[in-house]
Design a protein that fits this description.
The protein is mainly α. The chain has helices at residues 2-16, 19-45, 81-86, 109-114, 125-146, 151-157, 177-214, 217-221, 227-261, 264-269, 284-296, 300-328, 332-353, 363-370, 375-382, 389-417, 427-435; strands at 50-56, 71-76, 96-100, 116-119, 166-167, 173-174. The chain has two domains: 48-150, Periplasmic binding protein-like II (D-Maltodextrin-Binding Protein, domain 2, 3-Layer(aba) Sandwich); 174-263 and 283-435, no CATH class.
């Protein structure tokens, strides 16, 4: 045990003392936020403002086609239609002309058959769909008016219905759409981070083992320590590095959420009718305060505990596989035929967890979070929605037992493979090493 501790300490200190590790740990959350902001700005920068002139032969649409910040309607006289279409080409201040036909006998089918949009540039699909939606809404209103329904009644028909959801299993707490969205975002974020870190740090263990094997450094090291102690020291050392990063990031996230949550009371006053839903009038800071409040309203101590436990066990489980692979091959090219066995179960668990968003307590979610090969990502994806304590305990027990068993198998392979050179490992050879 003393040798495992010394190797773990060496691996840990070697990584955390690097300037790159310190900078990445402290700046990664800011980089992620900045990256998200850049993506948002890119979408914003690519938004278009289209100007469409409208020739309304029926006179039905004037005053009903409403302009907005992305699409501007300008109504022109019917007599100018031909001249406008003729002079459209090369007109830099105009994107197109919408020609709406005359309606005969209130036959709205004529509009769909004879309406045309003449453009002098390539307009986006979203702009075209917005025009179609605007025309359809006007036609819909006119058809309803023909049925003798007044404007006030029409507005009442379009009024949205808000359904309050009260969860009795969470102390009769009201579960709003925003709260569900926050849970979904947190679920996806934690699941993806776990998936990526297990693969990234697992591959790091495999490459470290392979490098020491190829440099023949391992021949000197194992003269002082047992192969199993060397393997466990490497795995635990890198595990502590990853956990250190997570502890720093979780602390920064909780502090950030607490700071942003101070503005929640003022945000509530700006939401009409005391509704918990965000309105379009809220700015980014107010939205952040609302989201932070919903995050802190979750059982985040349990979420953090489950996240750390399942990441720790899941990482050790898969790193044992990666360490065994690194010891069994002579170069990175040969690792490709074996790493598939580590990546496939994790990938299955991640993509299977996407279906949990609509039914976290369904049979698929239960089995994915219980089976040890997929539980490190599936249980983390489920935990923001709430998971019974007995399921968490059962999943931890099975994952812990399977992890210990996998360490035992990996140790058998590592013990033989670390000193094997020039002999290409096959599944048959690996089975012999395990049995020996």
């Amino acid at each position: 045990m003393n040798n495992i501790y010394l190797i773990t300490k060496r691996e840990f200190l070697t990584q955390v003392k690097k300037k790159s590790f310190i900078l990445l740990t402290l700046l990664a959350p800011l980089m992620i936020i900045g990256f998200g902001a850049v993506i948002g700005l890119m979408f914003k920068a690519n938004e278009s403002h289209n100007i469409i002139e409208v020739v309304d032969n029926s006179g039905l649409f004037k005053g009903q086609l409403k302009s907005n910040d992305k699409l501007e309607y300008i109504f022109v006289p019917v007599a100018d239609e031909k001249a406008k279409v003729k002079n459209l080409k090369g007109n830099k201040s105009l994107d197109g002309i919408l020609v709406l036909p005359q309606i005969t006998s209130q036959n709205f089918d004529d509009i769909e058959k004879n309406t045309r949009l003449v453009v002098n540039t390539k307009i986006g699909l979203d702009t075209k769909q917005r025009i179609i939606s605007d025309i359809s809404n006007v036609i819909k209103k006119e058809k309803i008016k023909q049925l003798g329904i007044a404007e006030s009644q029409l507005d009442n028909l379009d009024k949205n219905f808000e359904l309050k959801t009260i969860n009795v299993s969470e102390g009769n707490k009201e579960d709003s759409d925003l709260a569900f969205g926050v849970k979904t975002g947190l679920s996806l974020g934690l699941m993806y981070v776990t998936f990526m870190f297990i693969i990234i740090y697992g591959v790091r263990v495999m490459r470290s083992v392979l490098e020491e094997k190829n440099n023949r450094v391992v021949e000197i090291i194992i003269s002082s320590v047992k192969p199993f102690e060397l393997m466990m020291g490497k795995i635990l050392g890198v595990t502590m590095v990853a956990l250190t990063q997570f502890v720093v990031w979780i602390t920064m996230s909780v502090i950030g959420a607490l700071v942003l949550n101070t503005g929640f009371s003022s945000v509530q006053k700006n939401i009409p009718n005391g509704s918990e839903e965000l309105s379009d009038k809220l700015d980014i800071a107010q939205i952040a305060a609302q989201v932070s409040h919903n995050l802190l309203d979750l059982n985040f101590p349990l979420i953090i505990f489950v996240f750390i436990v399942f990441f720790l066990l899941g990482y050790i489980f898969y790193s044992s596989i990666y360490a065994a692979i690194g010891s069994a091959v002579d170069n990175e090219t040969e690792t490709q035929q074996f790493t598939l066995f580590a990546i496939l179960p994790l990938t299955l668990g991640m993509y299977g967890s996407f279906s949990l968003m609509n039914n976290p307590d369904g049979p698929l979610g239960f089995w994915l979070s219980i089976i040890p090969f997929t539980s490190p990502v599936a249980m983390i994806a489920r935990i923001p929605y709430g998971v019974p304590a007995w399921e968490i305990a059962l999943s931890i027990f099975l994952l812990l037992a399977t992890t210990i068993f996998m360490i035992f198998l990996a140790g058998k392979i590592y013990r033989v493979g670390i000193l094997m050179y020039g002999n290409k490992a096959t599944l048959k050879e690996l089975w012999k090493w395990i049995r020996s």
